[in-house]
C-alpha cells in the first residue's frame, strides 16, 4: 500500500516531509489537510493524528506524527534514501538529533511566532501582537546567529560541516522559508545580517531542486497576496489620514 502523507503546504514541517519524499523518489500520496478550513480538527483526521496537527503519515497500518520522527522513519524504512540524509554513523546521527531537538524550542518558536504575530494572525481571526513579535524576533535572530556560529562554521555547505544535506538541513531551512511572507523591511532586517544562512538556504534549494521551489510555490503566492493586501491597507490608511487633515493645510 502506498504511503499517505497528510499535509498542508503552508505548514513548514509538512513541506519538509513532502520535499524529502519527492527528492528520494518515495512513492506517496499527498492528502491535503487544509488548516485554514480547520480540517485538522475533523474526527476523520483525529483518527490519523490525535494531536490535530500536520504533518502525519500512514504507512500500511502504521501511523506517525511529528515531522522529525516521520523523516527519521522514512530515511530508515525506504532503502533508496541516500545515507547523507540520516547517516548510519551513530555519532553523526546523534549530532543531527541534537540540532533537531534544539530547533523545536528555538528557531521554530522564534520564526513561527514572529510570522504569526506580524502577518498571519488576522487571516486566522486573531489580532496582530507587536509585543509578542518583538520577543519572537529576539529568539529568531539569536537562533540564526547560533546556526551560523555553531553549525555552519565549518568548510561544508550544510549543517555540522556536511557536504550534502541531512534531514536537519531540510527541517530548519523549511522553517526559515516562512519568512518569505514578511514585508521586505522585516525580511531584510532579520535575514540580511546572516550571509551564511542565506547561502545555506540556496545550497539546500539547489540540492533538492526542482522539488524545493515546487513545494514552496504556495508560499511565494501567499507572499504576493499579502504584499497586495498590505499596499491596499496602506493606501486606504493614507487616504483616510489625508481626509482627516485640517482643510487649511
Ligand atoms: N512539532 C510538530 C509541529 C506540527 C505543527 O505545529 N503543525 C502545525 C502547522 S505548521 C499545525 O498543524 N497546526 C494546527 C494547530 O495547531 O491547530 C512537527 O514537527 O510535526
TrEMBL record:
InterPro entries: Glutathione-S-Trfase_C-like, Glutathione-S-Trfase_C_sf, Glutathione_S-Trfase, Glutathione_S-Trfase_N, GST_C_Theta, GST_N_Theta, GSTT1/2/3, Thioredoxin-like_sf
Domain GST N-terminal, chain residue ranges per copy: 1-82
SUPFAM superfamilies per the UniProt record, alphabetical: GST C-terminal domain-like, Thioredoxin-like
Gene Ontology terms for molecular function: glutathione transferase activity
Top EC class of this enzyme: transferase
Catalytic activities: RX + glutathione = an S-substituted glutathione + a halide anion + H(+)
Stretches assigned to the GST C-terminal domain: 89-226
Keywords from the named record: Detoxification, Transferase
EC number: 2.5.1.18
Gene Ontology process terms (BP): toxin catabolic process
A matching Pfam family: GST_C_2
Record-linked Gene3D superfamilies: 1.20.1050.10, Glutaredoxin (3.40.30.10)
Protein family according to the UniProt entry: Belongs to the GST superfamily. Theta family.
Name assigned to this protein: glutathione transferase
Amino acid at each position: 500500500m502506498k504511503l499517505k502523507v497528510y499535509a498542508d503546504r503552508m505548514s513548514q514541517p509538512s513541506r519538509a516531509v513532502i520535499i524529502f519524499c519527492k527528492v528520494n523518489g518515495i512513492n506517496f500520496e499527498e492528502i491535503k489537510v487544509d488548516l485554514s478550513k480547520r480540517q485538522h480538527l475533523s474526527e476523520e483526521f483525529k483518527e490519523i493524528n490525535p494531536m490535530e496537527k500536520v504533518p502525519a503519515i500512514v504507512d500500511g497500518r502504521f501511523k506517525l506524527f511529528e515531522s522529525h520522527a516521520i523523516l527519521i522513519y522514512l530515511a530508515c524504512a525506504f532503502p533508496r534514501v541516500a545515507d547523507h540524509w540520516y547517516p548510519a554513523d551513530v555519532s553523526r546521527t546523534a549530532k543531527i538529533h541534537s540540532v533537531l531537538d534544539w530547533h523545536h524550542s528555538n528557531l521554530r518558536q522564534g520564526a513561527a511566532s514572529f510570522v504569526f504575530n506580524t502577518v498571519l494572525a488576522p487571516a486566522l481571526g486573531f489580532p496582530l501582537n507587536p509585543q509578542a513579535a518583538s520577543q519572537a524576533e529576539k529568539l529568531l535572530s539569536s537562533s540564526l546567529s547560533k546556526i551560523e556560529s555553531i553549525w555552519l562554521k565549518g568548510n561544508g555547505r550544510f549543517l555540522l560541516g556536511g557536504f550534502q544535506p541531512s534531514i536537519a538541513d531540510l527541517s530548519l531551512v523549511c522553517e526559515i522559508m516562512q519568512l518569505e511572507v514578511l514585508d521586505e523591511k522585516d525580511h531584510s532586517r532579520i535575514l540580511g545580517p546572516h550571509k551564511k544562512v542565506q547561502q545555506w538556504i540556496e545550497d539546500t534549494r539547489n540540492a533538492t531542486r526542482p522539488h524545493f521551489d515546487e513545494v514552496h510555490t504556495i508560499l511565494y503566492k501567499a507572499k504576493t497576496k499579502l504584499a497586495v493586501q498590505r499596499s491596499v491597507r496602506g493606501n486606504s490608511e493614507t487616504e483616510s489620514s489625508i481626509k482627516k487633515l485640517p482643510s487649511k493645510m
